[in-house]
Design brief:
By secondary structure, the chain is mainly α. It contains one helix and no strands. It is elongated and about 110 Å long.
């Protein structure tokens, strides 16, 4: 072949060693390990995906039950927690008395923009 043709160039991809070479066992073991790791990775991704899906479903299903439980606990424990003024503390209460009118004063004019 002439120099510079496609057949003379070395390919960047390593070819599998031939059966008679001493390097074939190492190449076979490496191929076997990579194949095994690919299978393990596939199974781990599947298990992880299932686990994440189960956790997602549990979060969405248990949240309403959790909120119901906390509402129930709040209802049962808040029987003595009503807001009442403390005794002996001065307060303000509006009552009709002297100088208080029942109707608000009438407006003197109408408001316009």
């Amino acid at each position: 072949m002439a120099k510079g043709t496609k057949g003379d160039e070395e390919s960047p991809i390593q070819e599998e060693p031939e059966a008679g070479q001493s390097n074939s066992f190492k190449g076979y073991v490496q191929w076997l390990c990579f194949s095994l790791l690919d299978c393990v990775a596939l199974m781990c991704r599947g298990v992880l995906g299932c686990f994440k899906g189960i956790v997602w479903c549990l979060q969405r299903c248990c949240y309403p039950m959790k909120e119901l439980f906390f509402d129930l606990v709040d209802t049962l424990s808040s029987t003595g927690m009503e807001k009442r003024p403390n005794r002996g503390v001065p307060g303000f209460r509006y009552t009709e008395g002297i100088g208080a009118s029942k109707k608000p004063p009438a407006a003197k004019g109408t408001f316009q923009y």
